[in-house]
Design brief:
It is a single chain. With about 180 residues, the chain is an all-alpha fold. The protein has five helices and no strands. It has helices spanning about 5-35, 40-45, 60-90, 100-130, 145-180. Helix 3 packs antiparallel against helix 4 (about 100-130). The chain is elongated and about 80 Å long.
């Protein structure tokens, strides 16, 4: 079996996995906010600094606000996954280097960048929601970047750089095809 056939087969697997994630992530976020009162506190604070949390149960209004706020970073992440799925659809179809690839890589890079920014904002909103019922003076607004955020920004820049390189390679390839 040659490499092109292997790439198309592996791409089909990734395409299917990304399709699953595109459907499962919104459902998972919705279930998280519906059943947040039943989750152990350690699951809620896994990515947060120690802070005074609202005493359970979280009211429906705060859960709804949390769900709505979580839609912003979720949409950015779904955009990344959707663009990746389109990229693997190209590979699955045997198309490996084209302008469409460059465009998709750029979309992925900018969506990753947006996802990081929106996630930082959401963490702030979440810290306020989880401490909303605390008495004045013990409510918390936590905004910060983690090493994961910095790493994701680096990956976003790297993907943008790869898109630039692919575009230059595509242009050179087209020029060579036109040369007699």
């Amino acid at each position: 079996m040659n490499n092109r056939v292997k790439i198309t087969k592996v791409s089909a697997v990734f395409y299917g996995f990304l399709s699953f994630l595109l459907a499962a992530l919104p459902v998972g976020v919705m279930l998280y906010w519906i059943f947040i009162n039943e989750l152990p506190e350690t699951l809620l604070t896994v990515n947060m600094q120690s802070m005074p949390l609202v005493s359970p149960p979280l009211p429906v209004s705060l859960r709804l606000m949390g769900f709505l706020a979580s839609l912003f970073p979720l949409c950015a992440l779904l955009s990344v996954l959707y663009s990746l799925r389109k990229l693997f659809a190209q590979y699955r179809g045997g198309n490996f280097f084209s302008l469409a690839h460059v465009v998709l890589f750029k979309k992925i890079a900018w969506a990753l960048f947006l996802w990081v920014l929106l996630s930082i904002g959401f963490d702030g909103v979440q810290s306020v929601l989880f401490s909303w019922s605390n008495p004045p003076g013990s409510r918390v607004l936590h905004i910060g970047m983690s090493s994961g955020d910095v790493a994701m920004l680096g990956i976003s820049g790297l993907v943008l750089f790869i898109a630039w390189i692919m575009d230059e390679g595509r242009r050179l390839s087209e020029e060579n095809e036109l040369t007699v």
